[in-house]
């Protein structure tokens, strides 16, 4: 199963991806996590990305595509993956589509988690208290939500036009939202 999770910062993509990974037995590829690992390792790429991420802006498309190509070349993606945090703009959506066509692994589903803006802000504030992510500071959060609206929201239409989009209500408990996703991607095999 090849799946991409779409949704604003705070919509629950990371949390649901972790659950889906256990259920589907495929790796969870989070571009935010890959970048944070580079920052933590102090690599050249990490040093380049650090300031951009702290401001809530997007790291360059070229860096992201290189990272993804690298990740997809690992054998654990042969049976599928859950992608989270990519694509963030239409150029990335096109690049991903071309990459997956090239390796003969087209996307099965794009799942959009829909959550109202007030709730996003509340959830990110909660995460800021718990995890202390640099980009969960108020100014960076405003920027990330703005970047989402301007650059990432059009990606939803990209997948709609490709007939791959399924929209899921992201409001509710972790279990409720998880069950909605499973019903959308495995209608013949609902859980719980
Ligand atoms: P996330 O954990 O997905 O919210 O990502 C955290 C930050 O990493 C983002 O605010 C961006 O600065 C950067 N980032 C993650 N994924 C991408 C991407 N696909 N394109 C550009 N920047 C990204």
Topology:
Layout: E1 2-6, H1 13-24, E2 28-30, H2 31-41, H3 44-54, H4 61-72, E3 81-84, H5 90-102, E4 109-114, H6 117-131, H7 138-161, E5 165-169, H8 174-185
Parallel strand pairs: 1-3, 1-4, 2-3, 4-5
Helix pairs in contact: 1-8, 2-3, 4-5
The structure holds adenosine monophosphate.
Overview of the structural elements:
It is a single chain. With 192 residues, the chain is an alpha/beta fold. It has a single domain, classed as Rossmann fold (3-Layer(aba) Sandwich), CATH 3.40.50. Helix content is 57%, strand content 12%. It contains 8 helices and 5 strands, in the order βαβαααβαβααβα. The protein has a 5-stranded parallel beta sheet, with helices on both faces. Helix 2 crosses helix 3. The longest helix is centred in the C-terminal third of the chain and has 24 residues. It starts with a strand and ends in a 7-residue tail after the last helix. The site of adenosine monophosphate (AMP) has 17 residues, from helix 2 and helix 3. Adenosine monophosphate binds next to helix 2 and helix 3.
The CATH C-level name is Alpha Beta
Helical residue percent band: 55-70%
- Helical stretch tally: 8
Strand order of the largest sheet: 2-3-1-4-5
Q: Count every beta strand, where a strand is a DSSP E run of 2 or more residues.
A: 5
Task: Catalogue the ligands.
Answer: adenosine monophosphate
Q: Which structural class best describes the helix and strand composition?
A: alpha/beta
Instruction: Estimate the mean pLDDT confidence.
Output: 94
Question: In total, how many domains does the architecture comprise?
Answer: 1
Backbone shape: globular
Q: Give the amount of beta strand, in percent.
A: 5-15%
Spatial gap, N to C terminus: 20 Å
CATH architecture: 3-Layer(aba) Sandwich
User: Biggest sheet: strands, sense, closure?
Assistant: 5 strands, parallel
């Amino acid at each position: 199963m090849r799946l991409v999770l779409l949704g604003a910062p705070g919509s629950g993509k990371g949390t649901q991806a972790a659950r889906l990974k256990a259920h589907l037995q495929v790796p969870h590829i989070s571009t935010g996590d890959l970048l944070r690992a580079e920052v933590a390792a102090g690599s050249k790429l990490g040093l380049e990305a650090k300031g951009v991420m702290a401001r809530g802006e997007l790291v360059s498309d070229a860096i992201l595509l290189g990272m993804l190509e690298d990740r997809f070349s690992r054998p654990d993606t042969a049976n599928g993956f859950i992608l989270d945090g990519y694509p963030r703009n239409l150029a990335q959506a096109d690049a991903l589509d071309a990459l997956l066509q090239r390796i003969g692994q087209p996307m099965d589903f794009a799942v959009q988690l829909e959550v109202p803006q007030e709730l996003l802000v509340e959830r990110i504030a909660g995460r800021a208290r718990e995890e202390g992510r640099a980009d969960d500071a108020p100014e960076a959060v405003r920027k990330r939500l703005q970047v989402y609206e301007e650059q990432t929201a059009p990606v939803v239409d990209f997948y709609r036009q490709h007939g791959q989009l399924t929209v899921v209500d992201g409001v509710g408990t972790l279990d409720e939202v998880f069950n909605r996703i499973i019903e959308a991607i495995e209608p013949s095999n609902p859980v719980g």
